[in-house]
Amino acid sequence: MAKKKAAILGSSGMIGQRFAHMLNDHPYFDVVAYCASDRSEGKKLADVWRLSDLDTIPGLSEEVIQATATSALIKEGVEVAFSGLPSDVAGPIENDLAEAGIAVFSNAASHRMEPDTPILIPEINAEHLASVEVQKRRRKKGGFIVTNANCSVTGLALGLKPLVDKFGFTEIDVATYQALSGAGYPGVSSLDITGNVLPWIKNEEEKMGLEGKKILGAWKNGRFVDSPVNIMASCARVHVRDGHLEAVFIRDRAIPDAKTIAKELRSFRAKPQKLKLPSAPEQPIIVMDEPNRPQPLLDSYAGTPDRARGMATVIGRIRVTEGCLRFYLLSHNTIRGGAGGSVLNAELAFKEGVI
Ligand SMILES: NC(=O)c1ccc[n+]([C@@H]2O[C@H](COP(=O)([O-])OP(=O)(O)OC[C@H]3O[C@@H](n4cnc5c(N)ncnc54)[C@H](OP(=O)(O)O)[C@@H]3O)[C@@H](O)[C@H]2O)c1
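That is the input. Now the predicted structure with NAP docked in place:
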């Protein structure tokens, strides 16, 4: 199948730069437009590059950023847009693109809770992609929007999926230790975060609860049906560059032992692995036995093959005591919880013939 022409929106941002890297030389998509606000128009990607773990790739670094305009993208033949726009501007821009016939894969929260828009995580709810057929009928030219989840709920939902399906857990408590890159660039003031922890991230706890129900729920008879899972979150920003660490607590009358839990997590595979999607991690949940892991500094980039670096959820310190299961979970916020999530969603849509 021919590659689809693609655009990156917000290409000067934390998520946009990840998109540029992950979509470089991609087997399904050919990026023809790197867009941002008027402030970045005319700059090269190399001028805005701030990913500490990656250099720009020769050729990619020379790409010139253009302003974001639907008409220009249509003229350039763009069929797919990857959005790393802030939520306060993403709503109307993404909607315009979808109305113009473009398939939009978005990181922004703006459209997540709409009744025909999926919060897609292909290992968890690949069947939710069917909801875009409802959108295609509603919109004039067959475009649609697929969102991915908030970065703190993405890794958590992936870790919960096999446990919820197998053991029926519903009451989940979680305390997060969230990285600075989760706040975009320039993010949190250095004076606020140096030597400090901020025990509040605006709207984050509410999003984890609401999005978790939709993600782990079903798509039945043309509508989303919420999962009974309740996620009660306490979210904190910590002085870490990349990777959200989360402490998870599950109380239930029948908790199996830690070995059984670990076996269930390790053996989990789903549709992206069966379809061998290019950015799908071969093992979506990696369980570590070392007593001091996972750590953001050492484990955020877990996932193989190379294209799936940072796409795996890492779980460790699994303990079961007095009817309570506890573990730590780590997920890369701008890869699995950001650009990589959208790229995997688009790969599923491509492979399934939705785009
Ligand atoms: N960071 C994460 O871990 C993470 C994870 C999941 C989801 N998200 C979501 O992903 C989105 C992007 O986050 P980020 O962290 O990448 O933010 P960011 O670093 O602040 O980047 C924002 C990007 O949007 C562009 N932009 C801003 N206003 C615009 C406008 N009016 N028109 C066109 N472009 C505009 C910016 O361009 P200029 O540079 O030209 O201003 C920049 O390229 C947000 O919705 C965020 O909530 C972030």
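The two ends are 11 Å apart (CA to CA).
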